[in-house]
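Long-time lurker. I teach an intro course on protein structure, and each term I like to show students one example going from raw sequence to a predicted 3D structure in C-alpha cell notation. This year I'd like something fresh instead of my usual example. Would anyone be willing to generate the C-alpha cells for the chain below so I can use it in lecture? Attribution to the forum is fine with me.
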Amino acid sequence: MGSAKGIRSAAQRRKRLRAACALAMLWPLAATANPMGPQVISGQAAFLNNGNALTVTNTPGTIINWNGFSINAGELTRFIQESASSAVLNRVIGADPSRILGTLLSNGQVFLINPNGIVFGAGATIDTAGLVASTLDLSNKDFAAGKLNFAANQQAGTIDNAAVIRTPQGGFVYLVAPDVENSGLITSPQGQIILAAGHSVDLVSPESPALRVVVSSPGGEATNMGKIIAESGQIGIYAGLIDQSGIVDANTAVQGKNGQITLEALGSIHMAPGSLTTASGAGESANDGGSIRIDAAGGTLDLASGATVAVNGGSEGGNGGTMDLSGQGLILQGVYSGQAFAPGYREGSLLLDPYFINITAGNTASDTPLTSGNIYANQYNGQTLYISPTELASAAFSNISLQAMYGITINSPIASIGKAQSLDLQVPGLIGSINVEPNAAIGTANNPLHANIAMTAANINLQSSIYATGNVALGGGAVNLYSNNSVPLTISANQFSATNLNIGPGLFVISSASGGVITNLAFPTGNLTFNGQITVANFTSPPGYTEKAGTVTNNGNLSFTGMNNIGEEFINNGSVDNFGQLTFAGPVTINTTRFVPDAFLNEYSSSYMSFKNGFSNISPIQLVGGLMAFGTSGQYTLSAQNVTAQPGGSVTVAFSGQNGPLAFNKVLQSPNDGTFVNNGNGTYTYTANPTFNGDYFTYMVYANAGGTAVVTQQIQAGASTAPSTVPPTVPTGIAIPPIPSNVSNIITQVDPNSNSSKINSNKGGHNVTYVCQ
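-- Reply from a regular --
Happy to contribute to a lecture. Here you go:
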C-alpha cells in the first residue's frame, strides 16, 4: 500500500523545480529563441517573424513539426486562428526541451507536444482559448479525430509550470506528463484545468462536462504548490501520487454552475498544512457549494492539520455541496466542511470511504464539540478509520455516508448525528459486513434520530436497536437480528424496509408508522412483534433448526404477498398471533411431516386474517373472535375444533346456518374408527365404532364464488356425546377469554358485501368466522 510518506516533501519539490528552471536558463539559445524550423504536416500555416515576435496564421486542425519550440523572456509567439474552437498541433522533433519564458498568445487552442520536457518559467504569460502541453505522444490521427489519447513514451520528460497560464471563459488547460508540477497560476473561469501525471493518459470526452481521465499504472507524481483556479469550472489532478500544498479553487461564481474538483491517485494523496481545496459558493454570494472528490485509491489520504477542504454555501445563502474523501486509509486532521451559513439552506453531503470504519467512543484525539462541523477521525490504525459518536453529533453535514470496502463496526451508541438528515452505512463488497454490537443503539426510544437510516452490506448483523423518525432500510444481502433475550431489539421508523431479514433468538419489535416492506423474512427462532403497516414478500421458517421458534405477533396491518413456507420447527411450539389485520396474498405451505398438536395460528377478537391464494398442511387454527377469509383461487385446509364422542355413540355437527346450508362436496379422507354421513341439511353425523378411541377425517365444502374449504375434523374419545371443553393453545403472556364447551357448531351465512360464503363457529360468546372468497 502506498502512503503519505512516499510523497516528496514540499521543500524537495521546490528544490527540484528551481533546478529545472535553472537548467532551462542554461539550455543553448538560438539566434532567435522563438519556435524555429517549422514543417507543415497537415493543413495550412503562414509564418511571420518580426523582431522578437513570431506570428503564425493557421487553418483549423493544422499540424506543424518544429525543430525547436521555446520562447525567450521578452519574446512573443502568437497563433492567429479561425475561432476559439480551432486548434493547432505543434510537435517538437528536435532534441531540446521547450522553455516558455516569454509570451504565448492565441485566440484558438494550442497543442504543444515535446517528449524532451516542457517548462513554463516564472514571468512567462500564456493566454490562449485552450492549452494542451504534453511530453507523452499524441498521434496525428487522434488529434484530427479530437481524441486525447496520450501514449507511453520512454524518454518523456516532466512539465513544470511557474508561469501565468490563463484562458477566457469556458477554455481549458491540460498538462500531461509522467510528472507534473505547478508553482504558478493557472486560471480558466467556467473551464477545465487538468494536471495528469502518468506514462499513459487518456482524457475521455474532453468536450463533455463530465470529463473522465484514465491514468494507467505506473502513475507519476503531480504537485501543486501554486494556484489553480476555475470558478464554476472543473479542476482535476490525476497521478500515482499527489501532493497538494497550494490553492485549488473551483468556487461557484455563477448561479447554477457549481464547481467540481477531483483529486485521484493510484497511490497516496497528501494535503499539506496551509493548503486550500475549495468548491464553495464564491465570496459574498448566495450560490451553492460544488463537489469535491479526493480518492487515494491505492494508498492513504492524509489531510494534515491546517489543511482545508470546503464545499460550503455562499455567505449570503446557498446549500452546502458534496464531498467524497476516499482511500485505503484516511488520516483526517484538517478541516473539511459543507456548511450552509444562511437560514433556510441545508448543509452539504459527506462520504468517507476507507477500507474499515469503527464507530467507537474514546478512540479519536478530539471528542469535543466541533464548531467547524468536522469529523476529526484522526486516530489512524492501518486501514481503519475510527470515528467518535461525539464527533458524529457535531458534524455539520445534512447527509453522512460511511462506506467501507470491507467492514463497518459500531461499538458505541449513536445518540445524534448533528444536523444530518440521513446516515447511510455501506459495505459494497461481496464479503463485507456491518456489525452493530450489543449496547450500541442508534437513537433511543425517547430521543430517536430525526433522520433516515440505511445499511447496505453482504451481511448486516444487528444486535442493538434503531430508533428513527425517518425511514430505516436494511439490505444488500443477509440481515441478521440478534437479541439478548431480556430487552427487545427494536427497529422503530416511519417506514421500514429490509431484504433477506433473518430473525435470531430473542425478542424483537418492528414498528412502521406509515408502511414498510420486507422482501424475504426467515424466522427460524425468536419472538417477533410487528406494529404498523408492513408487507412481507416471502415468509420462510426453514425446518431443521434445533431451537424451536417463538411467536410472530401482529398488532397492525401485516401482509405476506409471496410464497410463504413455514417450517416444522417454527410450528412446533410456535405460533402466529394476530391482533390486527393479517393477509397472506400468496400460497401458504406449512411443511410439517408429522402432526404437531401444539402448533397453531391464533386469531383474536376484532382481528382479520385473510388467505387469498390457498394453503396446505395447515396446523390447527385457534380463533377467539375475529374474521378469517379465504380467496377463490386456491384450496384451503382448516383444522376444525375438536368434537367428543363415546364408543358406539354419535355426534351431529352443523355446517350450515343463517342463510342456508353451505354445499357439501365430498369426504377427502374417511374416518378410521367410525362412519361419516352427510345429512344434506347443513349437518353431518359421525358414529363411533364400539372400539372407538379417537379419530379424524377430512371433508370439503363449496364456497359460492367457486372456491373450496377443506376441513380436518378431530373426534376425541369421551364419556358422553356432548362436546367437551377444548382450551386453545396460547403463547405465554397473551391472555384470551376461556372457551366454553359448546364449540362444535360450524354454520354458514352469505357475505352481503362480497361474492363469498362465511363459515361461522360460535365459541361461547365469541363469534368466529371462516370466509371462502
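Some talking points for your students: Residues 10-26 form the longest helix (17 residues). The chain is about 5% helix and 45% strand.
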